[in-house]
Specification:
single chain; ten-stranded antiparallel beta sheet; about 0% helix; globular
Length: about 350
């Protein structure tokens, strides 16, 4: 989009990808964004291994729009539209870099429009399509080259565009009179033998759902709606970290479709990834021409660990859908008040 039909500085156009090995201890998330009204293009990659999280970020001036998805030493190549991508990120000694090819395992599906209000103002008004896939190539991290093969590495990707908070924060203005009471979000793309399932939901503090969708995409191309997701999350005692969950869905005949999930250690998107609440960098923020930043975070450092619960986290997950084994990603954010979960305020945790 060379020129967009809004002057809102928060217009964005972003690709997001992740790479998951459900049997390993390495998890990778990456993305590329363009912000036409801010004149900025940027990309990031973050990887978790053990108790450390590596982050690399690139940012530059957006001179003109083209079909090239590249900034600094990062690029996404569209090998076959909606089917195959190559993602390359230059690394350094002991840091993070990769050369990976993603191949779709299901058709792309467009999710419902996503609208989120702050008082009378839309702060998020976006569209998105998503797919599951498999990866091949190499990830270099912490001085080790990790071989990535499609039989062991799956991944999901989405492409979204519209308006969301990017760049430097807007003045609070009137919204300071009514600060956010809480945030609850779930994004669940899963891959099973023969099909994929993508669930997305967002709720207000009182439980009113402002975004709701559950879709099964069969390998033969059929797309099936699975009704209103009922979501039961088992939070770890003393935290809001989801250890397990059960997702209750229904097909068009009324037959229940039930997914049981267990998670392993995940990724804090706001620790080096530029998502909401990241104090080091945010998407679309002007950092000058040719800006590059590489950071390694110790997740046991109290200064880092203390802020992990107050942002969106992604957890590789093992899934079972009525006896069919699957893997995928459990993206969840729950902070502040959320009545259905029994959280009364920002300090509430699971019993």
């Amino acid at each position: 989009m060379a020129q967009v039909d809004t002057s809102d500085k928060n217009f964005y156009d972003r690709s997001y990808l992740n790479a998951i090995n459900p049997d390993g201890d390495l998890f990778l998330v990456s993305g590329f964004g363009v912000y036409p009204n801010l004149g900025v293009v940027d990309a990031f990659a973050i990887a978790r291994k053990g108790d450390r999280q590596w982050a690399v970020r690139f940012s530059d001036a957006l001179e003109h729009r083209s079909l090239d998805l590249a900034v600094g030493d990062y690029r996404i190549e569209v090998v076959e539209p909606l089917c195959r991508l190559r993602v390359v990120c230059g690394g350094d000694d002991g840091g993070l870099g990769f050369d990976l090819t993603w191949e779709a395992t299901c058709a792309a599906v467009q999710e419902p429009p996503h609208l989120m209000m702050s008082s009378t103002r839309p702060i998020l008004d976006a569209s998105r399509f998503a797919q599951t896939g498999a990866w091949s190539g190499t990830i270099a991290v912490d001085g080790e080259d990790v071989s990535v093969t499609p039989d062991r590495w799956m991944g999901t990707r989405d492409r979204s565009w519209g308006i969301r908070p990017v760049g430097d924060p807007d003045p609070a203005g009137r919204t300071a009179e009514a600060p956010t009471e809480g945030f609850w979000w779930l994004y669940l793309p899963l891959r099973f033998e023969g099909f994929s399932i993508i669930v997305i939901a967002q709720e207000n503090p009182d439980g009113f759902r402002i975004l709701n969708d559950a879709t099964r995409i069969w390998d033969d191309g059929r797309i099936e709606q699975l009704g209103w997701p009922r979501i039961d999350i088992d939070y770890r005692s003393g935290t809001r970290r989801p250890d397990a969950a059960t997702i209750h869905l229904t097909d068009r005949t009324g037959t229940p479709v039930t997914i049981a999930l267990t998670t392993r250690d995940g990724m804090a998107l706001h620790v080096g990834g530029g998502y909401g609440g990241d104090p080091d960098w945010s998407h679309g923020q002007w950092r000058g021409r040719g800006w590059v930043s590489r950071t390694v975070y110790d997740l046991t450092d109290p200064a880092v660990a203390g802020r992990i619960p107050y942002g969106v986290n992604e957890y590789p997950t093992i899934a079972d859908c009525d006896g069919v084994h699957g893997v995928g990603m459990f993206e969840h954010g729950c902070f502040g008040r959320h009545d259905p979960s029994g959280f009364a305020d920002w300090s509430s945790v699971a019993p």
